[in-house]
Amino acid sequence: MTRRQLGTATAVSDPLTPQERRVLEFARTWAPFGEPPDGEIFVEFGVDPTRFYRDLMRILSTHCPSCLLAPAERAQVLQLANNHT
After folding, report:
1. Label partner for 74 (CA 20 to 30 A): which of 27, 35, 46, 62?
2. What is the longest distance spanned by two Cα atoms in the chain?
3. Is the dihedral of CA 15, 33, 84, 38 positive or negative?
4. The dihedral formed by the CA atoms of 35, 16, 1 and 31, expressed in degrees to the nearest 10
5. Rounded to whole angstroms, how far apart are CA atoms 3 and 53?
6. Burial (CB count within 10 angstroms: exposed 0-12, middle 13-18, buried 19+), residue 68
7. What are the CA-CA distances from residue 82 to residues 5, 8, 29, 71 (Å)?
8. Angle, alpha carbons 29-35-37 (nearest 5°)
9. Which of 51, 4, 58, 47 is nearest to 28 (CA)?
10. CB–CB of 55/23 below 8 Å?
11. How does DSSP classify residue 9?
């Protein structure tokens, strides 16, 4: 099974910054398994979980559905974010 890359199926300019894309990809990867450990969030992004989930909610509310997540993936990521806000 190949891993789906965000944003590869469009020729439209990317509405996400590289950092926003990293946050979204990280959340998408972890969502099926539950939340990432707090230490993983800090190591990857240098922020505490509160900041990470606040940023994730902002990305989801500002850029999605243009973030190119499949509906099931978006639902998983949104549930992950909602569990922390």
Report:
1. 46
2. 36
3. negative
4. 10
5. 23
6. buried
7. 24, 27, 16, 16
8. 100
9. 4
10. yes
11. T
Full pLDDT tens readout for the chain, 85 residues = 344 455 555 445 667 889 999 999 999 999 999 899 999 999 999 999 999 999 999 998 886 655 678 888 988 999 998 888 6
Q: How far is CA 35 from CA 8, 29, 81, in A?
A: 25, 10, 9
What is the distance between the alpha carbons of residues 56 and 36, in angstroms, rounded to a whole number? 13
Instruction: Check residue 33 and give its pLDDT.
Output: 92
CB burial string 30-46: b at 16+ within 10 A, e below? bbeeebbeeeebeeebe
Q: What is the pTM of this model?
A: 0.77
Q: Which two tokens stand for residue 37?
A: 């450990």
